Amino acid sequence: MRRRWVATALLLAVATLGSDTPLMAAAETIETSARPISQFRIGSAERRFGNLEFVGGFSYRSSDRRLAGVSAFRMRDGGERFLAVTDAGLWFAGAIRRDGEGRPVGLGDTRLAPMLDANGRTYGRKSDADAEGLALAGGRAIVSFEGRHRIESFALPAGDALPDSERPRPVPMPLTRQELRSNGGIETIAVAPAASPLKGATVVVAERSIDENGNLYGAILERGAKGLFAVRRQLPWAVTDGAFLPDGDLVLLERRYEGFGRIGMRLRRIAGGDIRPGATVDGPVMLEADLGDEIDNMEGLDIWRNGAGQTVLSLVSDDNGSLFQRNLYLEFRLVSPD
């Protein structure tokens, strides 16, 4: 009996280790390497794709195996720095290194830190830690999670410190957990510009969860126009992120996966004035790409202005911790039609 009691106690200790013991004491610096990408279309010097002009990009990796599954990110300090989340419940932050022409060539000052739950502990289960969407607003980081579907917000420390000691506050869910698919929940969470039709409201869009009409769930979380809307679903595409242009239009990043070697990415522009409770929205495709271009499992999108006042779209991929996939960072500049 004594032996059985000791064995049971050891099993309980191991079972609870993940939720009581941090993955790391605090933010830790990690080393990364990068390979610059000078051409978006493989084997072509073409740089203009509709109203988007390819600036540059890079693939990156780290010997630290915790750096995997980057699912959403937001640029900070005019494109100099970024904050990201991973689907293993980690914060990831760093700086974008650029060459003399301003093209992105790699990462610097890269750090990882665990996200904490409301009890100040790291997540013990993948279903609790699966962070998929990220927005920054009002001094807080707003994060959406899959698995155990929820939205939480974390206070952002001063400067570029990671919120690794911050406990989250719950954000009311616009959808019930029964309406969200286990691996297709809220992947897009974006904050509209204050001077736009949505007046700074936070908007969410589901990856693959659909309403009775077969369209993707969307919701406005506050600012007077609170309520559900729908995004026209166009199979085989799934929404993986979104961000607002300065004029208030919403750009959705979409991914297509139809088996090995049949992967695609596109950007769809939704008029901000169309997004309102009860509406079903759609819009033109700004860019579509496949494995003839420098893409992978594209998961993250942000839109920001550089020092020259130009609008820049940044995209990242999620390597899923696989040797057969890549972590990518790509930049496009929004240009006027010819």
From TrEMBL:
A single Pfam family it belongs to is Phytase-like
Tell whether Transcription regulation is among the UniProt keywords: no
Keywords in alphabetical order: Signal
Question: Which InterPro entries is this protein grouped with?
Answer: Phytase-like_dom (IPR027372), UCP031900 (IPR014567)
Which superkingdom does the taxonomy of this entry point to? Answer: Bacteria
Q: Say if the entry is tagged with keyword Transmembrane helix.
A: no
Signal peptide start-end: 1-25
Which residue range or ranges hold the Phytase-like domain?
66-321
Task: From the Swiss-Prot or TrEMBL record, give the protein name.
Answer: Phytase-like domain-containing protein
List the source organism: Aureimonas pseudogalii
